[in-house]
Amino acid sequence: MPLDTQSRGTPLVEMRNIELAFGGIHAVDDVTIDLYPGEVVGVLGHNGAGKSCLMKILSGAYTRDGGQILINGEEAHIANPRDARSYNIETIYQTLALADNLDAASNLFLGRELVTPLGLMDEAKMEAETRQIMGRLNPNFRRFHSPVSALSGGQRQSVAISRAVYFNAKILIMDEPTAALGVEETRMVADLIQELKAHGLGIFLIDHDIHQVKALCDRASVMKNGKLVGTVRVDDVSEDDLLGMIILGKKPEHGVE
């Protein structure tokens, strides 16, 4: 079903006329995209297209040279990752940034550990909280006492996603979440994404796998050479349409906003 963004109220995120240059090279050139609650927007393009740079501006890893970011309709000032987190923006990188030797609870609270009134680490409470959030997002997760190095790729994604959700993420940036995963693991991550959507989170999904974008995303914004080719409703375009946008910078006849 086509998404009628005009009647959906205020976007979670609006990135308007964003500019970023390195030397004389425009990595992001006058790009405007948005994201609504309960929506997944794919950000597509070849390596060097500018998709990762655009998302790093939202995550606070890069500082934009021009343009405006609005969160819930109000201008946001994001100069570093701490600023981004203050707007409930969390990033789940392909590397997941997990400590391999620690278990799920220790990773969930890494750097934000819970402590008892005496100032000691409250391991029991951290495990209880981890079991609660994991029970909501991935009820089949059982390996609470294993180091995350012993977990499968999908289970590791569960830990990283649960960490973001526990700390009140409303906007998630996910970098190729199904890369190098098998069929079952990919289905697990897809189920997690559907659960996040149901709770009203908005997700920017950086990817180059058109099959995954068609399966997971509501809309797709395609970039080429730092510019936005266009944003389309994925149900209204074919995989060939998306390929044409990525490779040729050609807009399809239907589904473009």
> Mind telling me the CATH class of the domain at 5-88 and 170-248?
Alpha Beta
Q: What's the number of helices? A: 8
Low-pLDDT stretches are: none
SSE run:
EEEHEEHEHHHEHEHEEH
Largest sheet geometry: 6 strands, mixed
CATH topology of the domain at 5-88 and 170-248: Rossmann fold
Report strand %.
Answer: 15-25%
Ends apart, CA distance between termini:
14 Å
What would CATH call the architecture of the domain at 5-88 and 170-248?
A: 3-Layer(aba) Sandwich
**Helix content percent band:** 25-40%
Return Rg in Å: 19 Å
The CATH homologous superfamily of the domain at 5-88 and 170-248 corresponds to P-loop containing nucleotide triphosphate hydrolases
Structural class estimated from helices and strands? alpha/beta
Number of strands: 10
Mean pLDDT: 90
- Inertia-based shape: globular
Strand line-up of the largest beta sheet: 6-7-8-3-9-10
Describe this structure in words.
The chain has 257 residues and is α/β, with parallel strands linked by helices. 32% of the residues lie in helices and 24% in strands. A hairpin with a 2-residue loop joins strand 4 (66-71) and strand 5. Helix 4 (123-137) crosses helix 5 and helix 5 (153-166) runs parallel beside helix 6 (183-198). The protein is globular and about 60 Å long.
